[in-house]
Amino acid sequence: DRFTIKQVLQLTSLDIVPDDAAVLIEGDEVGISWGLQTLLFCLRGKGEGKRAHRLFANLDVTGKTLERAMLDASKELLPADAKPVLPAAFLVSPSVLPGTRTPSAERGAVRNIKPIVPFHHTRTEIKKALLDAKKRQHLQR
Fold first, then answer.
1. What is the pLDDT of residues 11-30, one digit of tens each?
2. HEC string for the chain
3. Which of 16, 126, 136, 141 is deepest in the core (most CB within 10 A)?
4. Whole-angstrom Cα distance, residue 106 to residue 122?
5. CB-based burial of residue 140 (10 Å sphere; 0-12 exposed, 13-18 middle, 19+ buried)?
6. Beta-strand pair 28-31/101-103
7. 28-31 and 22-25: which strand pairing?
8. Residue 139: what are its φ and ψ, rounded to 5°?
9. pTM, whole model, 2 decimals?
10. What is the layout of strands, in order, in the sheet containing 16-17?
11. What are the beta bridge partners of residue 23?
């Protein structure tokens, strides 16, 4: 059986099967290792396990949690008239032109351009260039 990320992220401490290395996902028992069962079971705490704490409460598939946190931080840290920083801002990088950004697709196209002069040289080429430079210096004296 295949489960969705959303189903896994909805797992609670009550979904951990106490006597078996398994978790319950929508009523289906899914086997896990005993080590993982031990780690997850400690999240239940020492109580009777009547409250269902989400195991992965800090993870969010939609990205809304991150977006909300960045929006709140922007309001707190930036001037009132500034645009809030959102996750989408990291998809573009600053441009050489003030106040503009370079879209990621354009950056990718620039990265794919082959340079006229290669950036990488072999060890032999570097050694030869250093020896030639040394000879020129010696001849100039």
1. 888 888 888 888 899 888 98
2. CCCCHHHHHCCEHHHEECCCCEEEECCEEEECCHHHHHHHHHHHCCCCCCCCCECCCCCCCCCHHHHHHHHHHHHHHCCCCCCCCCHHHHHEEECCCCCCEEEHHHHHHHHCCCCCCCCCCCHHHHHHHHHHHHHHHHHHC
3. 16
4. 30
5. exposed
6. unpaired
7. antiparallel
8. -70, -30
9. 0.43
10. 16-17, 22-25, 28-31
11. 16, 30
Sign of the Cα pseudo-torsion (114, 119, 123, 129, in order): positive
Instruction: Please give the structure tokens belonging to residue 70.
Output: 């960045």
Structure tokens at 61: 């598939």
Q: What is the pLDDT of residues 68-84, one digit of tens each?
A: 888 888 888 888 888 88
* Angstrom distance (rounded) from CA 36 to CA 30: 12
The answer for residues whose C-beta is within 8 angstroms of residue 28's C-beta and 6 or more apart is 1
| CA gap 25, 124 in Å, rounded | 61
Cα 130 to Cα 136: distance, rounded to the nearest angstrom: 10
